Amino acid sequence: MTRIVAGAVGGRTLAVPPKGTRPTSERVREALFSRLEHLDAVEGARVLDGYAGSGALGLEAASRGAAHVVLVEWGKAAADVCRRNVAALGLRDRVDVVRERVEAYVARPAARPWDLVLLDPPYDVPDATLAEILAALVPALTVESVVVVERSARSAAPPWPAGMHGFDTRAYGETAVHLGARSPDPDAGADPL
């Protein structure tokens, strides 16, 4: 059983897709969101949840005060479950579900920067695909944005692209959670010649 850990709809259960997804455990979500709240990355945030599965990560963010969440999921069954979960939790006004490949979604310019990006791809997603997604996200981030990548604890750290850096990694059993951010522009604030 998967449920929202805390916030406005804390304790409510979520439907999960019948197969093909690996929902983030409550223990990992609780630890992750404790860290994100410590970083002041959730309240009022604009959140992208890529590879949403059941929507558990993005819906946890919405429950904890995110202003707007977009759940991106390519699988039809999983996207349908996301829609049902959004409706059951009464979050239609703040959560959108997009059935599309994450690579295609992030390739288009974002209307506004993302404050928080949650990526929980299947463990077999190649590093090259993850690198493509992360590189496409760089222009859609500010230096205050936080990017979360969940991977197998046996996998290498995410392939952070130019313009991004990792700043924290935590392991929870078989799961590793990597936090990254947009790197400050070294020329920002420099006086023009």
Morphology: globular
Report the portion of residues in β strands. Answer: 25-35%
Supply the CATH class: Alpha Beta
The chain-level mean pLDDT equals 93
Give your account of this protein's structure:
It is a single chain. The protein has about 190 residues and is α/β, with parallel strands linked by helices. The chain has one domain: 3-Layer(aba) Sandwich (Rossmann fold). It has five helices and nine strands. It has a seven-stranded mixed β-sheet. Strands 1-2 form a two-stranded antiparallel sheet. β3, α2 (about 55-65) and β4 form a beta-alpha-beta unit. It is globular, with a radius of gyration of 16 Å. The termini are far apart.
Task: Give structural attributes.
two-stranded antiparallel sheet, methyltransferase, EC 2.1.1.171, disordered C terminus, single chain, alpha/beta, about 190 residues, globular, 9 strands, Rossmann fold, seven-stranded mixed sheet, about 25% strand, SAM-dependent_MTases_sf
In short:
26% of the residues lie in helices and 27% in strands.
Record the SSE blueprint.
Elements: E1 2-3, E2 13-14, H1 26-38, E3 46-50, H2 56-63, E4 68-72, H3 76-88, E5 95-98, H4 102-107, E6 114-119, H5 127-137, E7 141-152, E8 164-172, E9 175-182
